[in-house]
Amino acid sequence: MPLSDLIQLALRAITGQRLRSFLTLLGIAVGIAAVILLTSIGEGIHRYVLAEFTQFGTNVIGVHPGKTKTGGTPVTGLPSSARPLTLEDAEALARLPNVLAVTPSLFGNAEVNAKGRSRRTSVYGVGPDMPVVFKGKVRVGQFLPREEANAARALVVLGPKLKYELFGADNALGERVRIGGLQFRVVGIMESKGQFLGIDLDDTAFIPAGRAMELFNREGLNEIDIAVAEGASSASVARQAKALMISRHGREDVTLISQEEMLSTLSSILDVLTMAVGALGGISLLVGGVGIVTIMTIAVTERTSEIGLMVAIGAKRRTILSLFLGEAVALASLGGILGLVLGIGLAQVIRLFVPALPVHTPLSYAVAAEVLAMIIGLAAGVMPARRAAHLDPVEALRSE
C-alpha cells in the first residue's frame, strides 16, 4: 500500500473518533509542554549564569592563598603555613609574558560617610588595572592612578549607586569621603555594572589595595587576578604563574583557578541540571504513551471485523501493522505539535509577566521533543499493531 494511502487511512481513523483522539493526543501534548517549559527555564538560567560570569571576561586567572587539598578548599581566617599574597607578588606576576594586566584584590565592609550621609557598603582594595582585568569602565573622572604600592594615596572611585546615595545629583569629583577611620578623595565614578548573582556591583567603593590592607588590618591579599593576553594560552600562563609563586614562596602554597576552567565546569553542571528538569517533565510523556497504548488497544478491538475483511481480501499483515503504527505515530506527532505550541506559549507568558526569570527555548530542544513524541507513539503502538496484524481472519470476520 502506498505511503500516501496509509497516511490518509490513519488520519481518517483519528478524525473518526475526534473526542477520543483529542484526549489521547492531549496527554502527549501536556508531556511535551512540560518538557519544553522546564527546559526553557533551565536553559534560560544556564545562559543567565554564564552571562553573569562572562561579563568579567573569560581569560582571567585567580591566584588564591593556600593550596587546595583533596576534600577541602583554602580557608581564610584560620592558622595556616601558607604565606600571604603580597603587593610585590602581584607586581612580579604582572611581568610574566602574555599577561595583559594584574590587579591585587581584597575586600571588606565599611561605613562610608560624606556630606552628612552615611552608608555601609562593600569596599574593594584593588590595583590601577582592575578595569582592564574585569572589563570595567569609568563614567566620570579616572580610575586609581598608577603609583608605588607602598605610597598609595588615599583616593577612591565610587560605584554609581553609592555616589548617588552620598552626593545625589551633585558633582562628587574632588570631594572627601570617610571610609572606616580614613579620609579619601573621590577621583572617579564607575559605569553601572548592575547585579551579579544578587550582589549590587554599583553599591561599591574602590580604593588602592595598600590602603585597604591598612583599613581592614590585613597582612595579605584575598587574591590576585591575572588577565591573559588575547590569543595566549591560559593554561600556559597559569603554569608560569604557579612556578613563579613557588620560587617566591619556597613551596606550592597557592591555588590557581582560571575563569575558562570554572566556566567549563559550571556549564557542565548547568547542562546536567537542564537535562534533569527536562527528564522530570518527560515523566508526563510516559503517561501519554500509556494513553496511546490504551486507545490503540480499544481501536483494535472495535475494528476486528474490518481487520479480518482486509486480510481476507489479500491485505498483507505488514500493511495492517503499518496502518496501526501510523495511527499511533500520527496521534503522538499531533500531540507533540500541540505541546510545542503550549510549551513555547507558556514560556513567553512567563517571560512577559515574570521578566526576572530568564527563559529561553532553543530550537534543538523543540525538535528533540517532537522526535521524542513520535518515538513514544511508535513504541506505544507496537503492541496493539502486532495484535491487529496477527488476528485470524476467520475469527475476526466471525466477530461481526
Quick take:
This protein has 400 residues and is α+β, with helices and mostly antiparallel strands.
Which properties best describe this structure?
two-stranded antiparallel sheet; six-stranded mixed beta barrel; 2 domains; 400 residues; 55% helix; 12 helices
List the helices and strands and how they pair.
Layout lengths: L2 H14 L1 H37 L5 E6 L21 H8 L4 E16 L2 E10 L3 H5 L3 E4 L13 E4 L1 H8 L8 E4 L2 E9 L4 E2 L2 E2 L3 E5 H7 L7 E6 L5 H16 L4 E5 H44 L1 H9 L4 H37 L9 H27 L3 H6 L2
Parallel strand pairs: 3-10, 5-7
Antiparallel strand pairs: 1-11, 1-12, 2-3, 2-6, 2-11, 4-7, 5-10, 6-7, 8-9
Could you walk me through the main structural features you see in this protein, from its secondary elements to its overall organization?
With 400 residues, the protein is an alpha+beta fold. It is 55% helix and 18% strand. It has helices at 3-16, 18-54, 87-94, 130-134, 160-167, 209-215, 234-249, 259-302, 304-312, 317-353, 363-389, 393-398; strands at 60-65, 99-114, 117-126, 138-141, 155-158, 176-179, 182-190, 195-196, 199-200, 204-208, 223-228, 254-258. A six-stranded mixed β-barrel has the order 2-3-10-5-7-6. The longest helix has 44 residues, at 259-302. It is elongated, with a radius of gyration of 33 Å. The model is unreliable at 69-79 (pLDDT under 50).
